Amino acid sequence: MKPFNRIALIVLDSVGIGALPDAASFGDVGVHTLGHIAETRGLSLPNLKNMGLSNIEPISGIDPVAKPLAHYGKMAEVSAGKDTTTGHWELMGVHTSTPFKTYPQGFPTELIQAFEKRIQRGVLGNKTASGTAIIEELGEEHMKTGSVIVYTSADSVFQIAAHEEVIPLEELYSICKVARELTLDDRFAVVRVIARPFTGKPGQFQRTANRRDYSVKPPQPTVLNRLQDAGLDAIGIGKISDIYAEEGITRSIPTTSNMDGVDQLLKVLNESYHGLAFINLVDFDSKYGHRRDPEGYGQALEDFDRRLPEIMDRIREQDLLIITADHGNDPTYKGTDHTREYVPLFVWSPALSDQGVSLGVRSTFSDVGATVADNFGLQAPQHGTSFLPELIQK
Ligand SMILES: O=P(O)(O)O[C@H]1O[C@H](CO)[C@@H](O)[C@H]1O
Ligand SMILES: [Mn+2]
Ligand SMILES: [Mn+2]
């Protein structure tokens, strides 16, 4: 098969497709992000349906199709985690075998004191919380005192929330860099520091799109580094660049929402790049999954589905489109955290047969990275099997 010139890789953040065999050890029993949203409020996804959504796995109210447009399957995560970083790194060939450090009881006093001293402000919170709930709880006190709100979750994250009119964005980002520096220390080893700015009045606080993530670097080179080293494009759209700590990213385009993300992707597809355009659509996860809002999640899925024909229109004969996810976040499940799930896999190109075939159950997300490497003739990542040979051409 002739290599594709361009690959567009879309990660629908948290759009899982059913519990992995080891889900119970993550506290997740019977989880199914797509399936449970469909059962709760119905899902109208005509374009994903035609790609073969229910051919992967029957989703309530969506029929399997006789001739799926895409090659389809689902992928298991082998890494010891269900967070965004772990999922994305695995997609690009790096497995995380030791779970990242988490802080269910809050961060050690020693760390918080060192942080307060450096930023010359106090800390409120320092506990596990949902981001929207903690600004409701502590936002007013933050506005009065100027202390920052620090919180964490089931993930290895040090999140810092501040009102944009109390702490200007640039100062918040500097504060995050201090936290980043302090938590690189092996004793604390936090994967991501996240700026969580918000606006509005007490009782009506709103988080803004000025979130910023400061991640540790992947422990080994990913397929993105290989692309960059080979002089190819590795364009990150949305928070992709943050997730890989800029490693291997040749250009980064920020986004403000899922729909803005789609717009940015369309722009990139209109240009002539050679390599990978890699986009993360985070609203599914941050606005609806963690908020346990199946209605909003369902609408966001329908909104994406409606844009799919525009994306497919711009995928040329020499291009390959891959759609997948990074973990689950079943909005009908207890708690507010991610869920350990399979992720769907759709692979489509005008160069491929109109009748997609099953790519089966892939044993690691790294099959995506292996495919990208295979296509561009790059050194294969340590993990993953390219599905290129399984794609049937027209
Ligand atoms: O509740 P919010 O602030 O959205 O936080 C969520 O976002 C974090 C980063 O993706 C996750 O670890 C989860 O805690
Ligand atoms: Mn994610
Ligand atoms: Mn999340």
Instruction: List the quaternary state of the chains.
Output: single chain
**Largest sheet, if any?**
8 strands, mixed
Mean pLDDT: 97
Order of helices and strands: EHHHEHHEHEEHEEEHEHEHEHHEEEH
What is the CATH T-level topology of the largest domain?
Alkaline Phosphatase, subunit A
Rg from alpha-carbon coordinates = 21 Å
**How many E strands?**
14
Describe the protein in words.
By secondary structure, the chain is of the alpha/beta class. It has helices spanning 33-41, 46-51, 53-56, 84-91, 109-119, 131-145, 169-182, 223-229, 240-243, 258-270, 283-289, 294-314, 366-375, and strands at residues 6-12, 71-75, 123-128, 148-152, 157-163, 192-199, 206-207, 212-215, 233-237, 251-253, 275-281, 319-324, 343-348, 358-362. The chain folds into two domains: 6-96 and 219-392, Alkaline Phosphatase, subunit A; 109-215, Alpha-Beta Plaits (2-Layer Sandwich). The chain contains 13 helices and 14 strands. The strands form two sheets. An eight-stranded mixed beta sheet has the order 10-9-11-1-12-13-2-14, with helices on both faces. Strands 3, 4, 5, 6, 7 and 8 form a six-stranded mixed beta sheet that branches. α9 (240-243) links the parallel β9 and β10. The longest helix is centred in the last third of the chain and has 21 residues, at 294-314. One manganese (II) ion binds next to α11. Residues 84, 130-131, 153, 155, 157, 159, 194, 196, 286, 290 line the site of 1-O-phosphono-alpha-D-ribofuranose.
